[in-house]
What does this fold into?
Amino acid sequence: MFGYLWLLAACSPQSDNLAQRPVTSTFTIDVAPHYEQQTIKCDKRFVHKGQQWHIQQLAFFVSNMQYKMADSEEWQALSFVTSPWQTEHTALIWYATGCDSDVAQEAPDNKQGNTSLMLQSSEFEQAQAPVQMRFSLSVPFEYNHLNPLTQSSPLNNPSMFWSWRLGHKFLRLDINSKQMQKQWSFHLGSLGCQSQSSLRPPEQPCSQPNRFEITLNIDSQNQNSVLNFDLSALLENIDMARMSPCMFDLSEQASCALLLDNIQDKDIFSFAKRYHQPLIQVNKIEQALH
Amino acid sequence: MSKSSQVKSLQLFAICVLSIVLLLGCAKEGTKAYQWDLPEGFPLPQVPEDNPMTQAKVELGRALFYEPALSGNRAMACGTCHEPSKAFSDGKVRSSGSTGDTLTRNSLALVNIAYNSEFTWAHNGLSSIEQQMMIPLFNEQPVEMGISNNLPSVLKRFDTKDYRTLFKKAFGEEEPNIDKIVKAIASFVRSLTSFSSPFDDYAYRGKDNAINESQLRGLELFFSERFECFHCHGGFNFTQSSKHEFQPLDLQPFHNTGLYNEDGKGAFPERDRGLIDVTHQAQDMGRFRAPTLRNIELSAPYMHDGSIQTLDEVIDFYAAGGRGSGIKNPLKSQFVIGFRMNEQEKQDLLAFLLSLSDPSFGQKSDHHAPVNPPKVN
It folds into this structure.
């Protein structure tokens, strides 16, 4: 972080008038998965329809993040600070690899996960508190179908990539139930993509892009919030014990349709307090002049 | 700027250029950067900072890799279990060590392991080839190269004029020691790259005719949700455990494929239980790393214990969702659920797997033992 800021400063032309430069704010938004009002941690199971489940992997892409002020109808773009988890335009939240461990673990360590979005804006800091934020639960089409080998991290992560034709898994949830000795998955991504083969990108947008735009209100009285991800809303009306997983195979259409409806209609994401955790601000980390 | 200032600037520039040329010309042979044999646009592997690749180290490592005097009793070299014609595996169910011990696992192919983020069949604590090499060199149960009680005598064997010259070129010092030996062999192994298969021509060089119709149908099956192959054999190396200059994340996937289920609760045979033997975590029972599928036709038999003889049988194994009681292994990966296929589909998938073979890989002269190996004592 500080190295990056130092680099910005080092690259600034010396003749600039510092006072006239826009202020760039860099800040993080913590992402907190929970089931109803229970924070999901590695040492916790969640109970869904009477069955205990462990998360093996929960990961999703966030892109096109924007905010809006109370006195404006215009959406202002935010960009991500580049890191192994983020390109300038797309970020990967990666939670809970190995959370099916029997050993209590407070949280996935840095080597294994990423549970925050690091953003920057030249105007966000100067503005009054934003009232809305929105983002896409996806990888943008223009980056979704490129050769992953030549893309930068995290868009070259093979476990989040289907193929050139279909592009990335926008969301990946793998869970298991030791009680039932059952594993279950939901992998979200674009469908109906036409190309010569799985290893050739589509030239036209896919017929079912499955990109969900999430718009969230921000309580101006309570800026101390995190981006909550509510697993219970995603899995509402889904009985994993009986219904097939959804990885967009033809036999899985029933569960897929319900899951897509849930993303569309339920409040899966929200800016709210962190459940059963100390409140953590949408943290301002540092400012830099450039 | 005045004319005299311009002349001075030009003189200064010329001196700088000349200095750089002279410095380059004076550079030791050992510091000559290694030229990776990679297709255009492919990312460079990550190389440990304390062991940068040089041509001299690769050449020394190549000689050491094929030198039986590196084993305690001179009975075997690294190359004994890693033959170029078999994609640097050995064709045996399980390999044997220098003293005759039978090892617990099938010899892994050494293809593009410069990109590996994990090493061996099941270990999440080895971050480099250099670390991994300590196992075959010093392992005592079972004995592999058998160096641990013979290190001084082994090192003396390399105290020859030929090897002193090679060590000097590679490290700037003539004295052989185990650190230099490990670094040199690791450099040679890192140089074993393979990107000239028909699949590479199709996928990365855009040659639409590089694979035939059957292989193309097999490709579609491989990347389908019905067959699920790509979930574990993903990425350009057909194993998800890859790192390179654009991919620094270490996400360590290991998988239980349902080979065994000794007690109905998921147990694998005591002789080799996979990642659990390293982590002691119950959920790691029977978990192994998905090996690369590049040149897979050359590295039979298959699986960590060599218990499946042919690719044909491997496809049947995954179609069945495991083997015997292993099909109901409660710890089995959710992606090994089995699938129905007709004979044509099976042949197409097999044809696709054969398209991952790089015919030039085992034939490159600089991958083979030196024709005139350096002398040892």
Chain B has a mean pLDDT of 90. Residues 198-354 of chain B form a domain with the Cytochrome Bc1 Complex; Chain D, domain 2 fold (CATH 1.10.760.10). The interface with chain A takes residues 41-43, 202-204, 208, 216, 219-220, 223, 225-226, 230-231, 234-236, 240, 242, 246-253, 281-283, 328, 330, 332-334 of chain B (CB under 8 Å). The first helix of chain B runs from residue 3 to 26.
